[in-house]
Amino acid sequence: MEWWIWLVIALAAAAALAVCLLSVQARRRSGGVIAQGPGPRAGGGRHS
Amino acid sequence: MTVYMRASEIIKKPVVTLAGEAIGQVKDLVFDSSTGSIRCFTLAGRGLLAGPLHRALLWDNVHGLGPDAVMVRADSALEEDDTAARPGDGDRTGGDVLGVALTTCGGRRLGDITDAVVAMGRAPVVAGYEISTAEQRRVLLPVAGPVTVSDERVLVPDETARYEAADLGTFEEAAENLRGSLRRAPKEG
Amino acid sequence: MLFSSAQGTAVMDLTTAETIGTVSACTVTPTPARVAGLRLRTRGRGHHTLDWKDVRSFGPDAVAVEEAGRIRDEKDIGPGDPAHAAHDPLGKPVLTETGLCKGTVVDVEFDARSGRVVHLLTTEQRIPGGELLGVGGYAVVVTARP
Q: What are the residue boundaries of the structural domains of chain C, listed by start?
């Protein structure tokens, strides 16, 4: 194959890796609004 | 007059010491679903490649929360770990309310939660939610009293649906009206 | 005087009468608000720092230093030192202790004799030196005026 095909493949792989890293990083840093509270009232539930 | 802020305005805000050093940025808001009160923040590092800090910031250690930064006295205001942000014994597992459905106890799905409204002050509370309705409208709905939260939905009393607000400016009025109606009919809900 | 008018002033060694460098920046420390050090542009690479206490006099045309040995290389100064470059207020946002931004520092008005900071000038207002709480790597923090 032509030599430049390998260059294109390498560049595409690098770009895909960069996109992956960025999305993982965005997910690690993305925030939320976390609710914490008392669980199901003791004795109130049928289970346990 | 109460000042209201969207949770998304607090998330990503830098956490700055009184000495002027940025020690992180707000990642999550953790609130108590039985009272609505904000318990703590979790933090992320500030660098582009920084991940979560695993050090919680208790609300009691926040010196000031303004439109541009969360101020703390010093680096020591942060907890050594993030156990405060994890559910304690007997607590239901902490779930993110963003993205889950807001449903009335009567069984009507009002929409998906896109943001939370925080009433600021000495002890800030989650006072309502922004939802995206089935018609893709964004409205603010106040809540009063404890809400039941699961991974799938947040349950609110039926009255809630009647007191929607279009923006933060009219939210206070809607919250007042909801509280008034719950006072008149305390047994319902 | 305004710090912007002091930028570029020559720093001279009183023992040799030679110019050591020129003033490029200042560092400020709170309680009470005062200039803690001067950053100098010297010949060659890197920055050097002069503690305010080693400044013999701050004249309109030159800053006098007892001897050139008082100048420290910036690499030897830790971030906790008030003379460290992180405590340079110029260009930093001003935050009140309640988390409100009051513009960016554009100049520092100080007393050339004592080094006391009289005002911080921001893009929005003049903030008295007495309100300064801290100058750090991220921001300048001031008290919230009632």
A: 3-85, 87-142
The string of DSSP letters for B66-96 reads -SS-EEESSGGGS-SSSGGGS--TTEEEEEE
For residues B17-46, give the mean pLDDT. 90
C3-85 sits in which CATH class? mainly beta
Here the ipTM equals: 0.86
Contact residues, chain C, for B63 at CB < 8 Å: 97
pLDDT tens digits, residue range C44-60?
A: 777 888 888 888 888 88
CB contact under 8 A, C134 and B17: yes
The reply to whether residue B18 touches residue C133, judged by beta carbons under 8 angstroms, is yes
The CA distance from C18 to the nearest CA of chain B, in Å, is 37
- Indicate which of C90, C95, C105, C120 best probes the interface with B, i.e. most B CBs within 10 Å of its own CB: C95
For C10, the token pair is 């020559």
Q: Which chain B residues are closer than 8 Å to A35 by Cβ?
A: 31, 33, 94-97, 147, 149, 154
CA-based angle C66:C83:C122, to the nearest 5? 115
Please name the fold of domain B4-85. SH3 type barrels. (2.30.30)
| Phi–psi pair at B76, nearest 5 degrees | -70, -10
pTM of the model: 0.81
- C90 has a pLDDT exceeding 50: yes
Look up residue B156 and give its two tokens: 């609110």
Question: Which CATH number is C87-142's, of 3.30.420.40, 2.40.50.100, 2.60.120.10, 2.30.30.240?
Answer: 2.30.30.240
